[in-house]
Each structure stands twice: as C-alpha cells, then as structure tokens.
TrEMBL record:
InterPro entries the record matches: RGL11, RGL11_C
Record's protein name: Rhamnogalacturonan lyase family 11 C-terminal domain-containing protein
Rhamnogalacturonan lyase family 11 C-terminal domain residues: 2-118
Superkingdom field: Bacteria
Length: 126
C-alpha cells in the first residue's frame, strides 16, 4: 500500500493493528504545509528522476525550501516518472488547485513488471 502524505507527515496504514503509523514528520525541521485546510507541501513529485518521489516544504519563516528524499537503496531502475504523460499532468493539477496524488498510467508497486519505455522525441526548432 502507498504512504499517506498529510500536512508535514508521511504515514502508513497498518491494517493488522488498525492504526496509522507516522513514518516521517517534517515539522521537526521547521517545515510547515500550505493552503490552510488543504494542508499540502509546496510540491511532491519525482524531482530527481529515480521514480521515487521527493517532497518540498517551506520553513515557518518563509525563508527556505527544504527537499526531502529517500535514502533507502533500491535495485529497481525505472525511467523518471516525469517522462510518463499522466504523471506529469498529475503534478500540474496538484499545483493548480486539485491536490490529489499523482499517478502513472501503469501499475507501479510490488511484483510489477517493467513499464513500457516512454516514446520521447527531441524536436529541434529552427
């Protein structure tokens, strides 16, 4: 199951014990969420291109942005999620008011097969 991003916390539902476990709380780094009741980070997206998402928060004094990324090693190598059209559009709608999680247009999870390679073309304009 995917993690839950709520305010400055990343949480995971534990169905065995019927409770939510907090995996990370970024408020301890002086971070705050945005948008009042929406309680969202500045951005959550695959910024560094390893298919795992990073989260960006602002500090309480609005002087800094802090980027948090996973330090957990992975042997899974996928192309950047930003190369996936649905995911890229999802990141856009997150930032224009419809803050729902970003998804790709293929299954991304345990026991997955490799996704199809993106059809990326470089176009040079004259």
């Amino acid at each position: 199951m995917t993690e839950l991003l709520d305010g400055t916390k990343i949480q995971k539902w534990d169905s065995k014990n019927s409770k939510i476990n907090v995996l990370s709380d970024f408020s301890k780094y002086d971070c705050v969420a945005n948008n009042g009741t929406k309680n969202t980070p500045a951005l959550c997206a695959d910024l560094f291109g390893d298919w795992r998402e990073e989260v960006i928060y602002r500090t309480k004094d609005n002087k800094h942005l802090r980027i948090f990324s996973s330090a957990i090693p992975t042997d899974r190598r996928l192309y950047s999620l930003m190369h996936n059209p649905k995911y890229r559009l999802s990141i856009v709608w997150q930032n224009v008011g419809y803050n729902q999680p970003a998804y790709v247009d293929y299954y991304l999870g345990d026991k997955m097969s490799n996704p199809p390679n993106p059809n990326i073309k470089i176009v040079k304009f004259k």
